[in-house]
Design a protein that fits this description.
16 helices; 9 strands; 13% strand; TIM Barrel; alpha/beta
Length: 321
């Protein structure tokens, strides 16, 4: 999950000088921010500092991050014609700054730690593009999906192909593994997922797998159709904190599992945080194929000492196991 961000004072110091987009688009800065958590904590991998929405610009959608609101897309998709107007993009040309950042971090890490690249899944990216930003109910997304199914499938096909190419470009630039984020997928029920999303996620993951590195497929809120979600592919299924880990491992016998501490637990008193972390480790069991992680991105108000305590407990538990 996201490692660098507003919970780190050194990141906040950089943000006094640069916007999020400036950091993302400056490989030297993105590299520096990616490495910041590794200088404080003995985590077992780095994840590139970037944003899911960066591919939107070469597609022809303008956006920015507004204080207190998050991302705002100024020309969202609102009609079938808007899908037809999307511009194909070449990652090596249009997202060169991300690939350069990946190369820089990979060179800095060498053989010491792996680097994870990432990209947004078709549904989550489409929902941003249609809603114009974050959403609670995804009304516009679902209206478009139901009223314009042909355009919807064209949009998700476009995103699946281009995002797969983007991830494979990150692998060529030095990423040791890649993660596909479907952060808003839980807005859909099982039937809508199967009809409107699953074929496109499956196609994307199949193409990414050809890149030759491990692929993590993560979503939130999909406990009700976890088996269908897992059938999309990926070497590892990332779980949010709403899923019972022991039950998930019993269901996903053929795939590794990543997760799934509630990020809000990192705000708890130390005793409670240690109790919940150890409970997850026990649920994971002793079978191989488990990666401890948060169930979503780390929160800005997270105390540094709590992050360190969790990392140390997981390492100690792994050694004892």
């Amino acid at each position: 999950m996201r490692q660098a961000g507003r919970y780190l004072p050194e990141y906040r110091a950089l943000r006094q000088k640069y916007s999020i987009l400036q950091i993302c688009k400056t490989p030297e800065l993105a590299c520096r921010v990616t490495l910041q958590p590794l200088e404080r904590f003995e985590v077992d991998a780095a994840i590139i500092f970037a944003d899911l929405l960066l591919p939107l610009e070469p597609m022809g959608l303008r956006f920015d991050f507004q204080e207190g609101e998050g991302p705002v897309i100024f020309n969202p998709i609102s009609a079938v014609e808007d899908v037809d107007r999307l511009r194909p993009f070449q990652p090596e040309e249009d997202l060169r700054f991300i690939l350069d950042a990946v190369s820089r971090v990979a060179a800095e890490l060498g053989d010491r730690l792996p680097l994870i690249g990432f990209a947004g899944a078709p549904f989550t990216l489409a929902s941003y593009m249609i809603e114009g930003g974050s959403s609670r109910n995804f009304e516009e997304t679902k209206k478009f999906m139901y009223h314009h199914p042909q355009a919807w499938h064209s949009l998700l096909d476009f995103l699946a192909r281009h995002q797969a190419a983007f991830l494979r470009a990150q692998v060529r630039s030095g990423a040791s593994a890649v993660q596909v984020f479907d952060s808003w997928l839980g807005a859909l029920g099982p039937e809508d997922f199967r009809n409107y999303v699953q074929p496109h996620s499956t196609a994307m993951l199949r193409e990414v797998a050809a890149g030759g590195v491990p692929v993590i497929h993560f979503a939130t809120g999909v406990g009700g159709y976890l088996e269908d979600f897992a059938r999309c592919g990926g070497d590892v299924v990332g779980l949010d904190w709403r899923v019972d880990l022991q039950q998930a491992r019993a269901i996903l016998r053929q795939q590794a599992v990543q997760g799934n501490l509630d990020p809000a637990c990192l705000l708890a008193p130390t005793e409670e945080l240690m109790r919940q972390t150890e409970a997850i480790l026990k649920q994971a069991g002793t079978e191989p194929g488990y990666i401890f992680n948060l169930g979503h991105g780390i929160l800005p108000s997270t105390p540094l000492e709590n992050v360190r305590a969790v990392v140390e407990l997981v390492h100690a538990y792994s050694i004892e196991g």
